Amino acid sequence: MSFQNSFQSLQHKDQESDHQASFAKKELYYAIGVTVLFLLVCGFAATHHEMWRDEIQAWLLARDSASVFELFANMKYEGHPALWHLCLMPLSRITASPVIMQVFHLLIAATTVFLFTRYAPFNRLHKFLFAFGYFALYEYAIVARNYALGVLLITIFCVLYRERYKRFVWVGIVLILLAHTSVHALIVTIAIGFALMCEYLYFYCCKEEALTEDRRQIWIGFALIGVGIVTAVLQLNPPADTGFAVGWNFNFTVQRMNNITKIITQAMLPSPRASMGFWGSHQLNSYPLFQLIRLPLCYLIVLWCVIRFLKRPTALLTYLIATVGLLAFFYVKYGGSIRHHGFLFFTFVLASWIYYDCPEIKLKFNRISELAQRLFSLVFAIILAVHFLGGITAVRMDIKHIFSNGKRTAEYIKAQDMQDMLMVGHSDPSVSTVVGYLEKDQVYYPRGRRFGSFVRWDKARTHSVSNRDVVKEAKTLSTQNSQDVLVIMSVALNVSQIEEYQLTLLEKFTGSTIGDEGFHLYLMKAP
Fold it and tell me: Which residues of the chain have pLDDT under 50?
């Protein structure tokens, strides 16, 4: 009888193992299918996306820095660590076209989608809606910025978390890289590092259930996290002559605090308008009822998350420290845009993912936490449904409307065989977009009174420059070099200025999602 029971037990284990293998294979096929569909949609959308100045700025920094050391020197005004730019440097040695950056960025986004749909502990509906949601489909896929790299590394951390103490050195390496993607990812890294330290000290290091893994490897991992945080902070320390976002706001007002708190709804419920100016807009804000409930809804979302994570302290600490840290940064330093606010959403996703593998504590009021957990699937599906609608809307609008006129302007200049001319750019942030698409080494920027390609955010460019100043400097350059000059204006010149300096309006490109990236091209003939 004992032999028969043992045999039946073995059979049951084999069947369970076969079932798990079959389930894993189905999940793999599902992940591959979603990722392929994602690539098709994003690939088509990316071919219709005209990159704007922030995307091109990173490319120009990587392209026009002769060495890694020069890149770090040029990066000191950027307010971002250099990991994204370091990734772009070898690509810029293959080709001067920024299109290769779009392809690389799309591969990063697709990798995130694959890992999420393959390993995240959510159902298939959640995974699909996430993959085609606003941030995964558009903000961190179509718009090529450093933030997508941070989201990928957050996803890799979540995959590693289940067996974190067996691979803690790898956890440390991932978090070093995460800290060097953006200041927002650095805040998330600090939250993760602190939560992991508390978890290790409380649950494993000081109790009987100590881990069997090599503690030396674990402390090496923590050391790597610390190194990543410190080096990122040092790199973000601005020079004395920085000219961008120099102020700090430590004056507390309830109104400002409420306005910053409302950012939570923009991150959790992104809903761009179906118009040319869709980017950064929030359709829900146009409804009076939503405006009425917006602030209470933010506090309700945070309260629900706290109650849900309460019996899993690692998830709770990660969520609270990252959320409070991001909101504090938005308050005291830079309020940011939707691309920055998205880290509030990914903090929620991160905590929700690792929740299932966190050590648990016993609570006297478990029922409240369990109720919040039971509601999670429904609430998460509603949130992701809003993201899905927002993602589809953003992609549709980007395909339908011109995002930036930089690409069209560059194509016109190339078609007229004028790319080698001496050029003067009115607004350096806007005109740098044209420079990137032209694959040109430099133009003259009157704002900083110097030649360049990327924008150098120092105090030398903080003085204002009038339209007349731009034309006068173009005239001086034309006379000194005995060359025709192409003047790229972000606004139209008046008739008197055109006649006074004998300019010829060649073409104008106006009307785009980025409103100030329209251009007027004027030809100034050499005297």
Answer: 1, 7
